[in-house]
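Recall that a protein's primary structure is simply its ordered list of amino acids. Everything else, from secondary elements to tertiary packing, is in principle encoded there. The following example makes that idea concrete.
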Amino acid sequence: MTTRARRKGAPGALRSLALLCALALLAAACTPASLGRRRFIPPTSRADPTTTTIAPTTVRIPTAPASYHVGRTVFTWVDTTRQTVNGPDPAAPIPGRVLETEVLYPTTAGAAGRETAGAVPASAGAPFPVIAFAHGFDVSPPYYAPLLDAWVKAGFIVVAPYFPDQKTSTVSEVGGPQSAVGNIDELDMANEPGDIAFVLQHFYQAVAAGLGPLVPGMARGSTVGLAGQSDGGDVVGGLVFGTAFAAARDAMPARVAAVAILSGAPLSFGPTYDPEASLPPESEYATSSSPPVLQIQSRSDTCNWPGAAAQLFNQLSADPVHLFQTLTHASHLEPYARFDPGNPYLPIVEAVTTEFFELELGWRASRLSLATLERTANVPGYSSISATAPSFPPPPAKDDCSLPAPLAKKVEHNTSGG
C-alpha cells in the first residue's frame, strides 16, 4: 500500500472535471469540479532535496514539555442522522457515518516513547485541555503520532476521528485517490465539520460516564482547540469560520479557543455534496471576531499550493492572534508525520503548536507569551513566523502530491500508531 497525501490547487481550479465526468453514468449529471481538489501522483524514484540536503543535527530547536506518558483508547461512534458519500454510486449515499475515534490522553503509566493502550489517565493536573485533530486524505491519525503524542506529553487530550471516506483503508479499497471513485470519496470532507462536533459530543459523554479507561473530570469542558492537516486543515477552517457550517459550529459542545491549520486552504464547498447539483456552493468565511489562529505552510509544498494557504489566512477574521508560520523547504506531509522522524521540521512544528495551544488554551502558560512563541518559531534557515501571510509564486502547471521516494518507502512499513 502506498500512502498518498493528496491536496488541492487554488480554489476554483477545474482539477477534477475529467474524473468526475467519468462517473456520469452513475450520477444524474456530471458536476463541474470547481472544487480545486488536487490529484495524487504516485511516488517517483527521483531524489527529493527536502529530505536529503538538510542536516537535522545543525538545528537548535526548543523542546516541548514532556512530563506525561501517552495513553490510548479507541471508540466507534455512529451518527445515524447523516450520510456518507458513496464513490461507486454517488447518487445513492451510504446511510449513517461510522466514526472510529482515537483518544490519546496523559498518563503516568506506560513508558516514554510509546502509546499505552488502556492506561489509567493521570490525575495530577486534571482536568486537561482538549484538542480535536482532523487528518488529511488517504492518511489516518496514527500517521501523525509524533505530533499528537507531543501534545499529550505536554498535558493535552487529543480526540482524532478516522473520517469514513478519507482514511487510508477506505481509499485503498476503492482503488486509491487517483481513481474516479477516490476522487468522489474525497468530497465527503464536506461532512467532516459535522463529524468533529459529533465525536466531541460523544467524547465528553464518554468521560462523564467513565467509559473504557476514561474517568469523570479528566477533560476540560469549557473550551477546546482544533487542529487539522491538509484536507483536515480545510475542514477545521470551514468548521470555525465557514458560513456554510453554522449548524456544525452550533453543535460544538465547547467553545473553540484556538485553531491550528497545517498546510490547509479554503474549503470550497459544503456543507453537503450533491452529485446532481450544477455547482457545489462556495463556503464563505465569517468576518466577525474569531478565535486565535496559527497557520503553518511550507514554501516548497507542491501539493498544497502555498498561495492557497495565504488566501485562507487573508479570508479569516482578524483575531489579535493571527499567525502565519512559513517553513522554508519541507514537503507536504513531512513536517507533521511519523515516518520521517529525523527531519528538522517536525520538532519545530511540535514545539510551536504546543506553545500555541498552551498559550491560547491557558495551560501552564505563565512562562509563555507571543514573544516567546515568536522566538520558538523563528529558526534561521528553517522557519519564520509573522502576523501577515507572505507572497508566494503562482501555482505550478502540474500538481505533485507524491511523497518523496525515500519517504514513501518508510510509509509502507509504518502504518500503525504508537
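Residues 1-6, 8-66, 413-418 have pLDDT under 50 and may be disordered. The chain is about 25% helix and 20% strand.
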